[in-house]
Specification:
The complex is a heterodimer of chains A (528) and B (513). Chain A has a domain at 6-277 and 459-508: Alpha-Beta Complex (Amidase signature (AS) enzymes). In chain A, 39% of the residues lie in helices and 12% in strands. Chain A is built from 18 helices and eleven strands. Chain A has helices spanning 6-14, 20-33, 45-60, 103-110, 146-154, 173-180, 197-202, 237-247, 292-307, 320-338, 357-368, 371-384, 386-412, 430-433, 438-445, 450-455, 484-498, 513-516, and strands spanning 40-43, 72-76, 114-119, 186-191, 206-209, 229-234, 278-282, 311-315, 417-421, 459-466, 472-479. Chain A has an eleven-stranded mixed β-sheet, with helices on both faces. In chain A, helix 9 links the parallel strand 7 (278-282) and strand 8. Chain A is globular, with a radius of gyration of 22 Å. In chain B, the strands form four sheets. In chain B, strands 3-7-8-11-2-12-13-14-15 form a nine-stranded mixed β-sheet. In chain B, strands 1-10-9 form a three-stranded mixed β-sheet, with no helix packed on it. Chain B is an alpha+beta fold and 513 residues long. Mean pLDDT of chain B is 84; it is low at 1-56. In chain B, 30% of the residues lie in helices and 20% in strands. In chain B, helix 7 crosses helix 8 (420-438), helix 7 crosses helix 9 and helix 11 crosses helix 12. Chain B is globular, with a radius of gyration of 27 Å. The chains are: A alpha/beta (528), B alpha+beta (513). Chains A and B meet through helix 10, helix 11 and helix 13 of A and strand 1 of B.
């Protein structure tokens, strides 16, 4: 049952094959078994069981709230949850219990979803590995998969298995690990520069970043207000569409949400024919650092579309190479501004020093934030200084406009959807990952994803195939602003073609029979 | 711009919090109880050397002063600029604080329509150009009563620009002539108020009250077109009357609804402007004039004695009657000007020509519609008074400047047969004179408009003489000796046949004393 998709388990609930409480308990027990993954910061067991009980009553009375009623979900620990600690994986917010729910959390609860817990991340979502939070790094469930283990055995250089675990990517790594390890059916991530799509690619999941303005940010503790969007992590595209249907829409508490009419329920048609589609391949995304495996899968995916009758054309996004630097300036500037509120007065950590206000601020912030957060605040404040403002911040904003225009031009030239890699390569072992600092890693890992945030476009990472090492590789589709439904429809067609294999976690869990009951055969259509 | 204030004396101060209503449920020890007798931190006052401003008569004529003003008017609205919290003066501390006001992480600003309408209305009344598109920015500084660490304001593209304010300065012998003056208005911007810091020096604590945090302000920037305290004071008074007439701000300075910062410099005419100082937080019109004149004189003395003027922020100490350096910016203060506020899209206003067809009136603001609802402005009221009653312009100024006097005057006019000129003279000279003498506001007057009207009728019908009428006023104003004079008049009229005790009784009854 745990291995099923959200839609399938929803059907099972409706048919009474399983009750919400049974489902909730199964997930809770798996959460305990997979505790070593460090996917969750807080497991909200009591809340979830109570919600399950209520859901059960509704099902008994024939008053189900819909597809999400009784479905276990997890939420990244940077979304405010009323009565449940919300830490951002930072000392600054340890013990902070928000008095209100983020709009997206409230919407999920209103649909009857069960909140299993709050998932791990890089501190304040600043990172691309889920390795830099105060609660420790998240381990990628694929590290323990049969697929990966078997490949490791063939490799004579294989070292100590326990220290060889892989990162999930980030910063929504906890959410990705939680869905990937079957502890819930969907999870909320946040996506500022790729933080949902990147771990989705590394954990073999669908990672969806909606158009900016389609989903409310109210209650999402911000990284960069002008780029943040709540992200959705699921095991298939249909599930992402169900969750999006529950979340999308204007929110009076978030003035940047738009009043675009969006069809509800958010159903995805099954695309029978791609011959009317035009797929754009941005030539600037072919960078030297791209692994040959990813490159080859990317090109095969393009071939697949072409062979099925779609028009596939090369397009140019000429300002791509400036994008990551521009992102860095804008991101750190907003970070410096957004983080100013953490001064130890109203909430959060406060130091013991009380000789003066300024000393109290300084010590509180030194103790509360890690080096990465403080580094970004420092550089952001540098960019916002009066004498630097024009040279950095204003220029970066202009470049941002050019980058957004690149996309507009590509779409105006007749392209429906862009196809790119999500990451440079598959997930790397933790020990390998931490050889470089957070800034270097973020610059590498966000390379294909952050431009989309600057342009506010919808994008989704779809798992395509396993690498030679037996690890997932994802590809990214980018759509026109507010054409999220069209984007997901194309992604769904692609997903069906590639038949990405289900993660096999037998060795990890004793009773995996449940997990594997729905296992599909690994397709070879795109395998190398 | 509402910059940090009262920065001195923070050493050794611990932070304590009056409870944030419905706010954060952070697991921390119970908030410290609030201290009731807060003392503002003015400990540094005594350390300041006083400028004994001896007026150096030599060469005084060659100095000219230049004064510009930044005025913050609290918008009269039910709720705050970006949150749904109520706006109310003197509510229990931290009882009007939303999650947004306390800057709980994840909260976002939502613009208050009423505040935008108030800004547009004020802009129109001050002859401003209303920008159909304006932007919000963040101005950053760390201060305990600014929970977010930044203030949301409008710097790059404010809602109204390029206006003017006409005010009248008294001149001539006896200051009886009014000369109209114009000051240009650079801009009007919408911004958030900060909370209040209450310094308790005895306990080395600062308590924060966030009731005011996030209340909508109109910052009105007046160009440096004024040259002395009186001009500035008159301009501010005129602005106050306009805001009150519009209802966009109660503009009560004692309650902090109107706060003024003055930029002051002196120079020799024809030469470049001098270095300016900023005198902050002037919260009465009288102190405003005093502070500016003191500061002008201080700068002149400083320069004439070979000193130099520092570009600094100063405060006015009303008991000592002098300005003193706030010494709060030892390093250069960089507000990290001015990051756009990413959570608020540009504010777009419409007029009749640009209003999109079928627009939901609840979702758009129509400038032309607001223009139609503009009430009569004080200048028009004065003109009408002059035309209708043939009074002098300066009399119309006085009628409007005294709170409640115009209404009093109009009520008397309504009820009396007496000539308007006579009414004007009686209200402005006799009546107002008595009030001033007794230090009373119009609303506290023991004389009702009807009583004065009746008195003027008696005078008009020559039932009583002018001096008798004045004595009645005197009695009405509780002058104990005045009744004796009236008794004397009655005795004289009755050729001393009436009993003085009885006369007194009857008089007291008639005058309802």
């Amino acid at each position: 049952m745990l291995g099923r998709s959200l839609r399938e388990v929803s059907a099972a609930l409706k048919q009474g094959q399983i009750t919400p409480t049974e489902l909730c308990q199964k997930c809770l027990s798996l959460i305990k078994k997979t505790k070593f993954l460090n996917a969750y910061i807080t497991v909200s067991e009591e809340v979830a069981l109570k919600q399950a009980e209520e859901s059960e009553k509704r099902y008994k009375n024939g008053q189900s709230l819909g597809d999400l009623d009784g479905i276990p979900i997890a939420v990244k620990d940077n979304f405010s949850t009323s009565g449940i600690e919300t830490t951002c994986a930072s000392n600054m917010l340890k013990g902070y219990i928000p008095p209100y729910n983020a709009t997206v959390v409230q919407k999920l609860l209103d649909q009857g979803a069960l909140l299993m817990g709050k998932t791990n991340l890089d501190e304040f979502a600043m990172g691309s590995g889920s390795t830099d939070g105060v609660f420790g790094p998240v381990k990628n469930p694929w590290s323990y998969s049969k697929q990966y283990r078997e490949k490791r055995k063939q490799n004579p250089h294989s070292e100590n298995e326990d220290s060889d675990w892989l990162i999930t990517g980030g910063s929504s790594g906890g959410s990705a690990a939680a869905v990937s390890a079957f502890t819930c059916y969907a999870a909320l991530g946040s996506d500022t520069g790729g933080s949902t799509r990147n771990p989705a690619a590394h954990c073999g999941l669908v990672g969806f970043k909606p158009s900016y303005g389609l989903v409310s940010r109210h209650g999402l503790i911000p990284l960069v207000n002008s780029m943040d969007v709540p992200g959705i992590l699921t095991r298939c595209v249909n599930d992402a569409a169900i969750v999006l249907g529950a979340l999308a829409g204007p929110d009076p508490r978030d003035s940047t949400t738009v009043h675009e009419p969006i069809s509800k329920p958010f159903m995805l048609p099954s695309l029978a024919d791609v011959s009317k589609l035009c797929i754009g391949i941005p030539k600037e995304y072919l960078v030297p650092e791209l692994s040959s495996e990813v490159q080859s899968l990317w090109s095969k995916a393009a071939d697949l579309f072409e062979s099925e009758g779609a028009k596939v054309i090369e397009v140019s996004l000429p300002h791509t190479s400036y994008s990551i630097v521009c992102y860095h300036v804008l991101c750190t500037s907003e970070v410096a501004s957004n983080m100013a509120r953490f001064d130890g007065l109203q909430y959060g950590h406060r130091c013991d020093i009380d000789v003066s206000t300024e000393a109290m601020y300084a010590a509180t912030r030194r103790e509360g934030f890690n080096d990465v957060v403080r580094g970004r605040i420092l550089s952001g404040n540098f960019f916002l200084l009066k004498e630097n403002y024009e040279n950095y911040f204003v220029k970066a904003q202009k470049v941002r406009r050019l980058i957004a225009n690149d996309f507009v031009n590509a779409f105006n030239s007749g392209v429906d959807v862009l196809l790119t890699p999500t990451t440079l390569s598959e997930a790397v072992p933790y020990l390998e990952f931490i050889k470089e600092d957070n800034r270097t890693r973020s610059a590498q890992d966000d390379i294909f994803t952050q431009a989309v945030n600057m342009a506010g476009l919808p994008a989704v990472s779809i798992p395509v195939a396993l690498s030679n090492q037996g690890l997932p590789i994802g590809l990214q589709f980018i759509g026109r602003a507010f054409c999220d439904q069209q984007l997901l429809t194309v992604a769904k067609w692609f997903e069906k073609q590639v038949q990405f294999p289900v993660i096999q976690l037998q060795e990890l869990m004793d009773d995996c029979s449940a997990v594997l009951e729905n296992e599909k055969l690994a397709s070879v259509s795109l395998k190398q | 711009m509402a910059a940090p204030m009262l920065r001195w004396g923070c050493r050794g101060r611990r932070w304590a919090f009056a409870r944030v209503d419905g706010g954060s449920c952070h697991r921390r020890g119970a908030p410290t109880g609030s201290t009731s007798n807060q003392i503002r931190g003015e400990s540094s006052v005594a350390q300041q050397p006083l400028h004994t401003a001896q007026k150096t008569r030599k060469g005084e004529h060659k100095w000219a002063a230049v004064v510009g003003l930044e005025i913050h008017a609290q918008i009269s609205s039910n709720s705050k600029l970006f949150s749904g919290s109520q706006v109310r003066f003197s509510a229990p501390p931290n009882s009007l604080v939303s999650f947004f006001d306390a800057s709980l992480p994840g909260t976002l600003p939502v613009l208050n329509r009423r505040c935008v309408e108030a800004a547009v209305m004020t802009g129109l009344a001050l002859n401003c150009h209303i920008n159909k598109k304006s932007l919000f920015d963040r101005k950053h500084y760390f201060y305990a009563d600014l929970p977010a660490g930044y203030q949301i304001t409008q710097q790059r593209l404010p809602i109204a620009v390029n206006g003017s304010l006409i005010y009248g300065v008294c001149a001539g012998k006896k200051q009886s002539q009014v000369i109209p003056k114009t000051v240009r208005i650079k801009q009007i911007q919408l911004e958030q108020d900060s909370g209040k810091s209450l310094h308790d020096n005895l306990r080395s604590q600062t308590l924060i009250d966030l009731n005011r945090a996030g209340v909508g302000l109109l910052e009105v920037v007046l160009e440096p077109d004024m040259s002395c305290g009186e001009e500035a004071a008159t301009a501010v008074r005129e602005l106050q009357l306009i805001l009150q007439a519009l209802g966009t701000s109660q503009a009560n300075m004692a309650e902090g609804q109107l706060r003024v910062d003055a930029n002051i410099s002196v120079h020799h005419p024809g030469e470049p402007l001098g270095v300016r100082t900023e005198v902050k937080n002037l919260n009465s019109i009288r102190f405003l004039a005093k502070a500016i004149d003191y500061e002008i004189q201080r700068q002149i003395n400083e320069l004439e004695n070979g000193g130099e003027i520092l570009n600094e922020t100063r405060s006015f100490h009303h008991k000592l009657g002098c300005t003193m350096s706030m010494r709060d910016k030892e390093g250069k203060q960089d507000y990290r000007w001015f990051m756009p506020e990413p959570n608020l899209p540009p504010l777009v206003l419409y007029d009749a020509t640009s209003l999109p067809a079928g627009a939901d009136p609840q979702q758009v603001i129509n400038i032309d519609q607001i223009r139609e609802t503009l009430p009569e402005l004080p200048s028009v009221t004065r003109e009408k008074l002059v035309q209708q009653y043939g009074m002098l312009l300066e009399h119309s100024f006085t009628l409007l400047n005294e709170v409640g006097l115009l209404e009093f005057f109009q009520n008397v006019i309504k009820e009396t047969r007496a000539e308007p000129k006579k009414v004007t003279s009686w209200v402005l000279n006799t009546f107002l004179g008595y009030l001033k003498q007794q230090n009373l506001a119009v609303s506290e007057s023991p004389v009702t408009p009807s009583a004065l009207a009746e008195l003027l009728d008696l005078l008009d019908s020559r039932t009583i003489s002018s001096s008798a009428a004045k004595q009645v006023m005197d009695v009405k104003n509780r002058n104990p000796r005045a009744i004796n004079k009236l008794i004397g008049l009655v005795r004289k009229a009755t050729q001393s046949r009436a009993d003085p005790v009885m006369i007194k009784e009857i008089l007291e009854k008639k005058l309802s004393l």
